[in-house]
C-alpha cells in the first residue's frame, strides 16, 4: 500500500473549471495552510508506543526520543499553469515530476511520506497545485497498490444502500452515462479514452477497456519530468487527474468527481481506490481492516475469471465438489441435478481450469437467496478464492434486489460466521425451501443481512445495474 498523505487548504477561491486562480495573497494563505497541516500530521504520527507497554516488555532505552517514521520534503516538481484560454492562473501549478526514488527510499525504511499540494518549480517558486492532480499523479508514478480518498459523505445506490464495491467497468460506464451532465465526467471521457465512447455506442463496451487507458489509441502513461502522453507524442501540461471547481464544491454531481479520479488511476494501473466518509470515526480502519468495509471500493480485476457456469464446466465443478461430497461437507448431487441447476452456479476459471465454484438460488418473493456448494480446488485453497467468490455472489444477490442470504451447513459454520453470517432458526428459511430440507443431515441454518438501508439523503445518480 502506498502510504502517502496529501495536505490541502480550505480557502474561498476563484475557480475556472477544475483549477483555482492563485494570486499572491492566495499563495501565502495556501503555503500557511499546507505548512500548518503538514506539521500537525507529523506531530500526530511522531509519538512512540505507550511507556506502560514498553516497561511490560522490557525495552525502554531506544524509545525515549521521537519515532522517526515521518518524512516530507520537496518531492513534487511543478510548473506554472500559465495562461489558458486567456485566463492567467497566477501561482497555480501543474505537476511536472514526482521524485519517485527519494519517496521509495523513505517508504522502504518504514517511513510515512507526507506530500502536500505545494509544488516546487525549477526557477525556485512555490506553486499551488490541485490536490487531486497531485494525488493521482503520485499514485500513478509510484505504481501504488491503493489510493484512499476521504470525502464528507457516502455513495449510495437508488435504494439508499451504501455501494461498497464498484468494478472499474461499472464506474467507467456510470461516468460515461453522465458525461453530458458533468464537465468533470466529460473531461474524464476525453482524457481516458476518446475511442471508448464509439465502442460503447456500438455495444462493444468490454473491448474499450484495456490494461491501461488509451487516448486516441495510445496508452496514457506518466512520463516523470515531462507529463502525460497526449497520444500524439507530445507531453501535455496536465498530469494526473484534476478535480475541483464550483461543480465539485456545490456537489451538483454527487461524488462523481471523486469517482472519475478513482476510475482514472485504476485505468492507469492502480489496483484499488477506496472512497470513504471522513465524518465517520475510524472509517479508514473500518475500510481497510473489515471485510465489508465502510466506504466504496473501485477496483480492477478483483473478479478476474469469475463468470456464470456453462455446460462445459460440469466436469470441472464435479472434480472440485466430489471430495467435499464424499466427506459429507456438501450434499451429494447427481450430474442431472447439477445440469438442471447450472444456471445458478458461478465459477472461477484460471488457465482453462475451474478452480472454484458456488451457487446462488434466489427466492425473490422473500427477497432472499440460498448460498450453496461453495468449493475451492485443493491446490488453490488459502489464497482468498473463497472470499472472492462469496463477494461476487453477494454482489449478484444485491443486483437481483435480494436483502439477505441464507445457507445450510454441517461442518463449515465457522468460515461463514467470520464472514458475517449468524445462526438462525429454520423459520428464517423461506417456506418453499424448508419443504425440501433433509432434516436427517442435522444441518445448521445461517443467515446474513445484505447492506441495510441507511437513513439520510440518497444519491439517485449512483446506480449499479
Automatic annotation (TrEMBL):
GO MF entries: L-amino-acid N-acetyltransferase activity
Gene3D superfamilies assigned: 3.40.630.30, Acetylglutamate kinase-like
UniProt pathway annotation: Amino-acid biosynthesis; L-arginine biosynthesis; N(2)-acetyl-L-ornithine from L-glutamate: step 1/4
Domain N-acetyltransferase span(s) in chain numbering: 304-451
Entry EC no(s): 2.3.1.1
Domain of life: Eukaryota
Cross-referenced SUPFAM superfamilies: Acyl-CoA N-acyltransferases (Nat), Carbamate kinase-like
Any coiled-coil regions, as ranges: none
Bilayer-spanning residue ranges: none
Reactions mediated catalytically: L-glutamate + acetyl-CoA = N-acetyl-L-glutamate + CoA + H(+)
Family label: Belongs to the acetyltransferase family. ArgA subfamily.
NCBIfam families: N-Ac-Glu-synth
Protein name: amino-acid N-acetyltransferase
Organism for this UniProt entry: Urochloa decumbens
Lineage: Eukaryota, Viridiplantae, Streptophyta, Embryophyta, Tracheophyta
Amino acid at each position: 500500500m502506498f502510504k502517502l498523505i496529501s495536505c490541502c487548504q480550505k480557502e474561498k477561491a476563484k475557480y475556472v473549471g477544475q483549477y483555482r486562480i492563485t494570486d499572491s495573497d492566495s499563495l501565502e494563505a495556501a503555503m500557511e495552510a499546507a505548512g500548518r497541516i503538514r506539521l500537525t500530521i507529523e506531530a500526530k504520527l511522531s509519538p512512540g508506543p505507550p511507556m506502560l507497554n514498553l516497561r511490560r516488555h522490557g525495552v525502554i532505552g531506544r524509545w525515549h526520543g521521537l519515532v522517526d517514521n515521518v518524512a516530507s520534503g520537496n518531492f513534487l516538481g511543478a510548473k506554472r499553469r500559465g495562461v489558458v484560454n486567456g485566463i492567467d492562473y497566477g501561482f497555480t501549478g501543474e505537476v511536472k515530476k514526482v521524485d519517485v526514488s527519494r519517496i521509495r527510499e523513505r517508504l522502504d525504511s518504514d517511513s510515512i511520506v507526507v506530500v502536500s499540494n505545494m509544488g516546487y518549480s525549477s526557477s525556485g517558486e512555490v506553486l499551488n497545485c490541485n490536490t487531486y492532480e497531485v494525488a493521482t499523479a503520485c499514485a500513478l508514478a509510484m505504481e501504488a497498490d491503493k489510493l484512499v480518498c476521504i470525502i464528507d459523505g457516502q455513495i449510495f445506490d437508488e435504494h439508499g444502500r451504501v455501494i461498497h464495491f464498484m468494478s472499474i467497468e461499472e464506474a467507467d460506464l456510470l461516468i460515461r452515462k453522465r458525461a453530458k451532465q458533468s464537465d468533470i465526467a466529460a473531461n474524464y471521457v476525453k482524457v481516458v479514452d476518446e475511442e471508448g465512447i464509439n465502442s460503447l455506442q456500438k455495444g462493444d463496451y468490454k473491448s474499450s477497456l484495456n490494461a491501461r487507458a488509451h487516448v486516441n489509441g495510445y496508452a496514457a502513461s506518466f512520463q516523470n519530468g515531462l507529463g502525460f502522453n497526449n497520444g500524439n507524442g507530445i507531453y501535455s501540461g496536465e498530469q494526473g487527474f484534476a478535480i475541483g471547481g464550483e461543480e465539485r464544491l456545490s456537489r451538483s454531481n454527487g461524488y462523481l468527481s471523486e469517482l472519475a479520479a478513482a476510475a482514472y488511476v485504476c485505468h492507469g494501473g492502480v489496483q484499488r481506490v477506496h472512497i470513504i466518509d471522513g465524518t465517520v470515526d475510524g472509517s479508514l480502519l473500518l475500510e481497510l481492516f473489515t471485510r465489508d468495509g465502510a466506504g466504496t471500493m473501485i477496483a480492477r480485476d478483483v473478479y478476474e475469471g469469475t463468470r456464470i457456469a456453462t455446460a462445459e464446466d460440469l466436469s470441472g465443478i464435479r472434480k472440485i465438489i466430489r471430495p467435499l461430497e464424499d466427506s459429507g461437507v456438501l450434499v451429494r448431487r447427481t450430474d442431472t441435478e447439477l445440469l438442471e441447476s447450472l444456471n445458478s452456479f458461478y465459477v472461477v476459471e484460471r488457465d482453462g481450469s475451474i478452480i472454484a465454484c458456488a451457487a446462488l438460488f434466489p427466492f425473490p418473493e422473500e427477497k432472499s437467496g440460498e448460498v450453496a456448494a461453495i468449493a475451492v480446488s485443493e491446490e488453490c485453497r488459502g489464497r482468498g478464492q473463497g472470499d472472492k467468490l462469496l463477494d461476487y455472489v453477494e454482489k449478484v444477490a444485491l443486483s437481483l434486489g435480494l436483502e439477505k442470504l441464507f445457507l445450510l451447513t454441517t461442518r463449515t459454520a465457522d468460515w461463514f460466521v467470520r464472514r458475517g453470517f449468524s445462526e438462525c432458526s429454520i423459520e428464517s428459511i423461506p417456506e418453499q425451501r424448508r419443504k425440501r430440507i433433509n432434516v436427517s443431515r442435522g444441518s445448521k441454518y445461517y443467515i446474513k443481512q445484505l447492506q441495510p438501508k441507511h437513513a439520510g439523503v440518497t444519491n439517485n445518480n449512483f446506480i449499479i445495474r
